[in-house]
Amino acid sequence: MEILQSAAALQAQTEIWRQNKLRVGLVPTMGALHEGHLQLVRAAARENDVVVVSVFVNPTQFNNAEDFRLYPRVPDADAALLGPAGCTALFMPSVEQMYPQPTVLRFDFGPLEQVMEGEHRPGHFHGVATVVSKLFHLSRPHRAYFGQKDLQQVTIIRQLVADLSFDLEIVAYPTIREEDGLAMSSRNRRLSAEARAVAPRLYQALMLGAGLAQEQAQTPEAVQQAVAEFLAAEPAITLEYFTLADAQTLQPLAGFWPRGRTVALCLAAHLGGVRLIDNVLVTLPG
Ligand code: AMP
Hints:
Blueprint: E1 2-4, H1 7-19, E2 24-29, H2 35-47, E3 50-55, H3 65-70, H4 75-85, E4 89-91, H5 95-98, H6 116-120, H7 124-139, E5 143-147, H8 151-163, E6 169-173, H9 193-198, H10 200-215, H11 220-232, E7 237-246, E8 262-271, E9 274-283
Helix pairs in contact: 7-8, 10-11
The protein binds adenosine monophosphate (AMP).
Residues 29-30, 36-37, 40, 146-147, 149-150, 173, 175-176, 183-186 line the site of adenosine monophosphate.
Family: Belongs to the pantothenate synthetase family.
Subunit structure: Homodimer.
Subcellular location: Cytoplasm
């Protein structure tokens, strides 16, 4: 596995792959890798000739400087995991490599980013779209891999690809969880023992909501209330939002269950200073 640290080195490598008609898969990450990331790398290795994994903690997508500073960074451990998973080239640029000058362009995804993560982390998806666009241009992938764990992110990236005619396919894979249901996340490393012990409640809350959504015995608003109450019973968890949304448009349900649609149950919560997100999908009967 090669380690590339400059944008120019990645571009030069990409050019050679393209000339040799090799199919390129890209897996963008912020590192502190876990099984959720590695399933994307393995899938990219199965479905392409070469795999680029980027490990870059992107400052422009953090709306909180402290969160950026505390984000886990373990480059040596990441590099050791990637070769065996099928990564061909690990791209680990510095901030200066990715942002030789401040960007001026602003991304605005309208209603897609006026809810959930976009609503609670202003500018977050501008930063995501900026860095992902740069990575697409530098690595010119045939396919790019993302996790369902960040449902709003993958929806917005599909919109980015459509709107800017990026010539590539977006591939999404399901959320990988710990045995107790907690969604794997690089941020889980920062949980205290006490917070880690109650963290599976987030998935339990989503499963409670999913069961109620499937039954459709109560309105979406009543389900929202039930899930919020379930989490309120755990003092170590502070719920930031819980939203029942149409999985495609991401718009919150209002008053009724849309027949035949897939509903996304999405939440963000704080556990002792660590912010976690998770979601599950439920397809309603037609
Ligand atoms: P991150 O390093 O957190 O920016 O994540 C990089 C990619 O891995 C994103 O596409 C995430 O959605 C995906 N990912 C993160 N955690 C998981 C997980 N538990 N299961 C599946 N994919 C994940």
